[in-house]
Design goal:
alpha/beta, seven-stranded mixed sheet, five-stranded mixed sheet, 3 helices, 12 strands, 33% strand
């Protein structure tokens, strides 16, 4: 099982095309976009590109995603996505509501919180929880356009070319 994670495209079609290329290279079983999908470009153009991502698609609503844009999408946007893989609960959110400073109450030791919102990629083990910020392909604030994979080994933060920035293995 491999889960591919992106966030904070803000309608940047060039970054969405990069994400499509990454998804074809990574061959994920599931792809999650942790919010702020829409922005600069037309919602229809963004939706057409998102539909090309590989794997079962999960779209999480960000603070810049508007209900009018959702009507173009191949699936609905939710406030969060919750999965159970690798012997743990994975909670995907945008990051404006839940993040490393505000943990969802349903998570316990060994579980995973995945978010975006800050545009800075980061992996940490904090009080027994795995906290993963995917960063952003289109508008990184740490000058490193990034995405994330989650698999049986753990969580990996990567650059656009697939180079590993940081890895956090399951304990």
């Amino acid at each position: 099982m491999k889960i591919l994670v992106f966030a904070d495209f803000h309608g940047n079609v060039n970054s969405l095309q990069q994400a499509i290329d990454i998804s074809r290279r990574e061959h994920p079983d599931k792809t999650v976009v942790c919010g702020d999908l829409f922005g600069w470009s037309s919602p229809q153009q963004v939706a057409e590109l998102v539909a090309e991502l590989d794997g079962v698609l999960y779209l999480v609503k960000g603070n810049n995603d508007y209900a009018t844009a959702e009507s173009f999408l191949p699936c609905g946007m939710e406030d969060s996505a919750i999965m159970y893989h690798f012997g743990r609960t994975l909670f995907f959110t945008h990051g404006d509501r839940y993040n490393s400073m505000r943990i969802p109450p349903m998570l316990h030791t060994g579980d995973v919180l995945v978010h975006g919102h800050t545009h800075v990629g980061r992996l940490q083990l904090y009080n027994g929880l795995y906290i993963a910020n995917v960063g952003s392909l289109s508008r990184p604030r740490d000058s490193a356009p990034s995405y994330m994979t989650i698999d049986e080994q753990g969580i990996t933060l990567k650059l656009v070319n697939g180079e590993i920035l940081k890895q956090l293995d399951w304990q």
